[in-house]
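ARCHIVE ENTRY
Sequence with per-residue tokens
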Amino acid sequence: MVLVIVIAVVALLAGLAANRWLRPRLVGDDDDTGMGVKDLVGPLLTMTVLLLSFVLVTANGSFGKAEVASRGEAKALDQLVETAEYAPQAQRERIQADAVCYARAVREQEWPAMSDGEGSAAPSVWSTDFRKTFRRPSAC
């Protein structure tokens, strides 16, 4: 995202600089002199707009996929907590506590690590504890 902002700022500064230095040359230009700077600037502006729109559409699509994935994970965690209500008391408390810790680990450790292009092992500690809790025999 930082790269997109830097590119947009550089493009804006280049456009302002070109407007400042090339504008006096474009004023009073007639069509029968051949190809001028004006003929090159128009297509460059069109390409810039198309490139920026492509980047924005791609970023929006990526954001949408991330939102759908995070909602799906939250829904699965919510269902796990609700399902734990049917477990014996000791298992129920452990599952619900692990669910809270898992959600905190995702929010506080996994998401910041993902923004840097990496991942965190913290949430898997709690998901492993879920499996261990389900494997234990109940007192029933």
